[in-house]
Amino acid sequence: MASHAVMPYDFEHDSQWRQFSTLYEALKRRQVDVHQGPAVSKEAKERNLATRAHNACIPHALEQAEGEWPAWEPERRQVAVDLLCRAFSKACKNPHDKLDEVRWKNMGEEIWSVWVAGLSPTSHSLAALVTDLFKDLVNLFGGPILAGDAPFTKDRQALNGIRSACRRLQGRDGNPRDKVAAERLVVLRGRLQRLAAALEKRVELANTKREEYLEAVESLQALFAQLVPAGAGSGPGQSHTGSYFAQLPLGQQGAAVGCIRAFLSAACEHRAAHGEPLDPKIFGVNLLNALGVPQLVSEWVIGFNERCRVTLCMDSLSAIHQLYVDHRQAASIISLAEQLSPEGRAEWASLISSVPLNWQCKAVTLCRQLLRNVQSYSTKYGQLPSGETTVRNLATVRANLDHQKTLCAQHTSLQTQGGFGPFSLGSSSRRELMGGGTVSRFFPGARSSRW
Question: Is pLDDT of 428 > 50?
């Protein structure tokens, strides 16, 4: 009787294996060579050895998983993908934390126990799973993108290549070897500066997007919390998000879990491959549709956009405040520090929500520009600009936002009355009618002024 050869498992076309193996590989950490010698600290050597051991166990784990994978049920494979997404998100949030779960002994046991526990899903277990998946999303988008991350390897290699070329043109004293070397060094240093600035800008833009997307995810959670019936609260260890999902039929819960899982794994893969976040807007729309509340899409989009802009403004002001704290000059910017309090943040949120969309975006740009001005002044002169100057510049930003808020209020009032004047709301005639604008409680001496 002829025997039939067993066909090898088709890993290439298994999307779950692709996600699992890709994220396992992405858990490898950047390894920096540590040379022996008295100048190298004991901690640096220990860190390097720990990184080597961490990275060495990943190929072994993948080899073990590859041997077991074909016999697993699809549900167990999905659990494996979920746990790798969790480990990857955790690594993004805390890049230096020890990840014991990458060892196959720990990962394999965890996959088994989670899979067995979920064989008979209940409303409570699915709600708990949703809570965990959202925690993973918050960790993923909350983790800073760094120039040392794997997707920027080629950029770092290019920079290191130019640095090496510069060193070869220098003598032991650090000066150019000759006139030709000096001319070449000028060219190379210019290129080095441009490449370093381009990498810094790329990472900065990626983090700006990441912060905006984090706001989108958190505002989605906030929206679910609002949908929890009054007095329902949340169960032990359960978030308001989990409480909302716990009251849904099992079918809707299952559809929501599938939607969140698909986005989480795609977002992890995208960040691992490109070093950039994945836009959650389509995910949010799909999730709200799956939950049967498409009417909430516009409320969610408007809410997270405004919330995001407030956060970005506050981040810039916090960074400015920290610079003055680091230079022991915090006393010179007390009025700025007051705006970082809960009351101050609430006032910024109210102000930004009250101005037109273009001015909401401009507020973010102006706060960032204020931060860049302080940083560039410090770099150029070796000290910070006076606190009085920085506070005055911020007061100008606030005054102009207050001015726009007043214009909007007057525009709304005219609409309500059913009449418009022959001039536009932004004209000089309208500004003259305003009587000098509004006054901020943080900057009582500042009034609206034209840019």
Answer: no
